[in-house]
Design goal:
The chain has 19 helices and 16 strands. By secondary structure, it is α/β, with parallel strands linked by helices. The termini are far apart.
């Protein structure tokens, strides 16, 4: 696409991320409060303008999230936390409205208020008059503004409403602007609009209210046009765009921030994030997917594992000479990497790049690089993934290059789970492990066999390896890899550990969930010890 300089927006648009609210409405997603806090920190690190945390008062988790954020558990350095909610109820006062009170109690400086802009929804959903709906919009915003809050107004079903009654849809926006909304966001709530309609409608709204308030776009992907509609809306004059990580959201999802961000920065030259932020895009996409227990789409533009993968012989031979011959951008710009699938170089560039990040020169020794690559392929074939387990990958590379010192060696473990007559579940574990020529035995009890294993290992070695005492498990996820195998399915366990200063991720795979968990924990322990033991000593 060629965009003239006149068409590119003069100002850098605001990025409004609604992953934690609209995104979590996707079927199969359920985040804990801890999950939401983690995702919010990741989004803040990416450099978005606003993070919509949820709907306070709508459910206990969102209420707790905002309470903990206000108490200091979420210290954002770049983004502005935003609360979301609806206008007051029909035929009632704004003062004392429970939804508005919950929004104010969330204690955010910015509130995004949603209201109806389609006469059909006003009459059929709200069961009120058009005039009352206008009053609901105006009085709600006026109350929030009087309390010192900045207000963004989401005009729900705006494109459908504009097609049905353009005059009324415009009147809703005017009511919001007159009441003090700093931005009116045009929502394609049903996701059925096409780019030409979005372009024309947005341009008209910008002409009408652009001098008094910013104009934004919020589009869904039911017609598979969400990213295109968002870009077209910005080219038509909007200066605010809403979306979610990986395009998650209700039904077919929302506009995908992982595509929007590089399109705006690399194609239109709009510095919505820094170059460094952009280089972390693939990592962010995969990290958020893992928190949500979602399998990343390997074919996702920019951030998918296959986004820069080439298999055709013609492509591969050309790419060996110039990487831009069959790629629209350099994958490193978004933190991804070139993958050649059918030549002797297949995947070696990824291994070499990762090795360089670890301070290891794998490019000069093709034998070592090939051995690492073969090992990775073998492990990935049985279910391992190293995208979300950098610590396990680093241990693998160091082991294959002879730079990993063995700090401990497992002899055996045993777990017992007993359900007692009173209904209590008791798990016990025994671990036998060697450190050099010394043998240690530890026993422990836990809430389950994995917790008991952890306690037993600590009992055996925490005194000998202090780093073990300083670390603890932060997250634990299990994924079934072959769903048709029933209870005998192969499982993958991903563990996030922390020592209070650093986090690291490890992976284990087995048909036995306890063994898969042990493998992930073993890598976690080894990483903790290695990081505190200084430089590795070659065992070659």
């Amino acid at each position: 696409m060629t965009v003239t300089s006149e068409a590119v927006p003069a100002a850098v648009p605001q990025l409004y991320d609604t992953t934690l609210r609209d995104g979590t409405q996707q079927e199969g997603i359920s985040l804990t409060v801890e999950d939401k806090l983690r995702v919010a920190r990741i989004l803040d690190g990416l450099g978005v303008t606003f993070i919509e945390g949820g709907w306070p008062g709508a459910n206990p988790k969102d209420t707790e999230f905002f309470k903990r954020a206000a108490a200091g558990e979420l210290e954002l350095s770049r983004a502005v936390l935003t609360a979301f909610g609806m206008t007051r109820r029909p035929n009632a006062q704004a003062a004392g409205d429970p939804t508005l009170e919950a929004l104010l109690s969330a204690d955010t400086s910015v509130i995004c208020l949603v209201g109806k802009s389609d006469t059909l929804h006003v009459e059929a959903a709200l069961r009120t008059s058009g005039d009352e709906n206008l009053a609901m919009v105006a009085s709600s915003i006026e109350l929030l503004r009087a309390e010192g809050r900045r207000v963004l107004f989401d005009a729900e079903h705006f494109f459908d409403g504009h097609r049905r009654d353009a005059g009324y849809a415009a009147a809703v926006l005017q009511a919001a602007v007159d009441a003090g909304a700093e931005c009116v966001v045009l929502c394609d709530t049903n996701g059925g609009a096409l780019p030409a309609q979005v372009r024309d409608v947005v341009a008209g709204v910008v002409d009408d209210v652009g001098a008094r308030a910013a104009v934004g776009v919020h589009v869904h992907n039911d017609a598979d046009c969400a990213v295109a509609n968002s870009v077209v809306g910005l080219l038509a004059g909007a200066s605010h765009v809403q979306g979610t990580v990986n395009g998650i959201g209700e039904r077919c999802g929302n506009a995908n921030m992982m595509s929007l961000i590089p399109n705006l920065k690399l194609k239109l030259g709009l510095d919505v994030v820094t170059d460094h932020d952009l280089s972390r895009l693939t990592h962010v996409a995969h990290e958020v997917a893992e928190i949500m227990n979602l399998t990343p789409d390997p074919h996702a533009p920019y951030v998918g594992h296959a986004a820069f993968a080439h298999k055709a012989g013609l492509h591969v031979s050309a790419l060996a000479r110039r990487t831009d011959l069959y790629q629209h951008v350099e994958p490193e710009l978004v933190g991804n990497s070139l993958r050649l699938l059918v030549s002797e170089l297949a995947g070696r560039s990824t291994v070499v790049l990762k090795g360089r990040e670890l301070g290891l020169d794998l490019e000069s020794d093709r034998t070592v690089a090939d051995r690492i690559l073969d090992r990775i392929k073998d492990l990935e074939h049985i279910g391992y993934t190293f995208e979300a387990a950098d610590a396990s990958f680093e241990l693998l590379v160091r082991a294959e290059t002879g730079l990993l010192r063995e700090h401990f060696r497992l002899e055996s473990y045993r777990t017992i789970v007993e359900r007692r007559a009173d209904g209590r579940i008791v798990a016990e574990a025994t671990v036998r492990v060697w450190v050099g020529d010394e043998r240690f035995i530890g026993t422990g009890e836990g809430n389950g066999p994995v917790d008991a294993l952890d306690q037993a290992f600590r009992a055996a070695l925490a005194g000998r390896l202090p780093a073990i005492a300083d670390m603890h498990l932060r997250d634990y996820k299990v994924r079934i890899l072959d769903q048709n195998a029933g209870t005998g399915a192969t499982t993958r366990v991903l563990i996030r550990s922390t020592d209070g200063e650093q986090d690291w991720d490890t992976v284990g795979v087995s048909s036995n969930v306890i063994e898969a968990s042990w493998k992930a924990m073993e890598d976690a322990y080894a990483t903790a010890v290695r990081r505190t033991a200084g430089a590795e000593v070659s065992t070659a």
